[in-house]
Amino acid sequence: MEPRRYMVSYLCGRLDVHFPVYSENMRIIFLILLLILLPVGTAVAAGVGLYTGEVRVESQQKSERDRALPQALRQVLQKLSGRGSFDDYPLVEAALDGAASIVVSFSYRNVESTLADNSRSAQLYLIARFAEAEVNELLKKLALPLWPAERRPLEIWVVVDEGTGRRIMPLEYAYAWDSMNEIAAARGLPVRWPEPDEEGIFPVDAQLLWGGYTEDIAGENGAVMIAAARREGAEWSVRLNLDYGGQNWAWRQHDVDLQQALADSMHEAVNLVAQANTIAAIDQGRWLHEMTVTGIRGADDYRRCLGYLQQLSIVDRVAVTAASRGMVHFSLELNAVPLYLDETLSSGPVLEFDGTENRWSLRK
């Protein structure tokens, strides 16, 4: 027997429901379900802070703010595009001159940082937030790639060998970790740092870290970097192993200054992660995409699935086109080719692809 289907469209704020001729009771039940489940709205972009730039300034004077705003906009474009520099995009520099015209708000904050001699230094920062729509339009105009806002936090482990033994995150080098943290924030990559227990002991053996075995500590998040730093005479040699979303990289950095070596390592890590996850300008635009999701057993499952789809940055709008028992058909408006949606869903926690049925199902 053909399963009962209920056709639903939600366009321009108007809801149309098309019922087959069934009993009045069935119509009432379905209307109640609609009140619970709808409306279906526009996606909300993820990635708080991606449209905000922070730049060190000397004072709160207008002249200093005018000097800093283009730098703040540059930082925002770096966060959104994943690019460390814009050498290949000559139009960017001229576009930065218009930063003041698209700034939404600004404020200041004092930031204290630890220096190499363990002294503290206070710096004044301008915090400028820019209009999202205008920045997005600027990205398109400049033909910049887009790094989606769904970014796994990178867990960072640093093990140091000065010739007297290997130690995890020794406190005397805290200034170096602060520097790495600042770089990651400025580039738009969320990071997290391991915490020792009350006795200062980390839950991972230093020898395991020294081997660079990222797969042993990546966990469900699947994003970890191990920096193994050894002093070799007057120079530091840092070996990096990075595991992010199932992709792996390994490289080395050398410098007489450990802080500089780790800073360069952090920039390279962001470059690698961004390059592997950005959407090329040629693949950006407007696409309509139909998809079916099974395994939806009730209102809670529906809300979970709908909420997940709505918050994806590649999705601009979600509409329900049909529903039957345990199954919902969605129509999505995308801002990039559907391939990127498939990649996002495959690495996400909510949906899994059923190859035999050629459709998505809700994870339990």
Strand-helix topology:
Blueprint (H helix, E strand, L loop, with lengths): L5 E6 L2 E5 L5 H14 L14 E6 L4 H20 L10 H5 L2 H4 E12 L5 E11 L1 H10 L12 E8 L4 E3 L5 H14 L3 E2 L13 H5 L12 E10 L2 E10 L2 E9 L2 H20 L6 E11 L4 H13 L3 E10 L2 E10 L1 H9 L4 E4 L4 E4 L2
Parallel strand pairs: 6-8, 6-9, 12-16
Antiparallel strand pairs: 1-2, 1-13, 3-5, 4-5, 6-7, 9-10, 10-11, 12-14, 13-14, 15-16
Helix pairs in contact: 6-8
Molecular structure report:
The structure is a single chain. The protein has 364 residues and is of the alpha+beta class. The strands form 3 sheets. It has a 7-stranded mixed sheet. Strands 6, 7, 8, 9, 10 and 11 form a 6-stranded mixed sheet that branches. Strands 3-5-4 form a 3-stranded antiparallel sheet. The longest helix has 20 residues, at 62-81. It has 10 helices and 16 strands. Helix 6 runs parallel beside helix 8. The model is unreliable at 1-48 (pLDDT under 50). Helix content is 31%, strand content 33%.
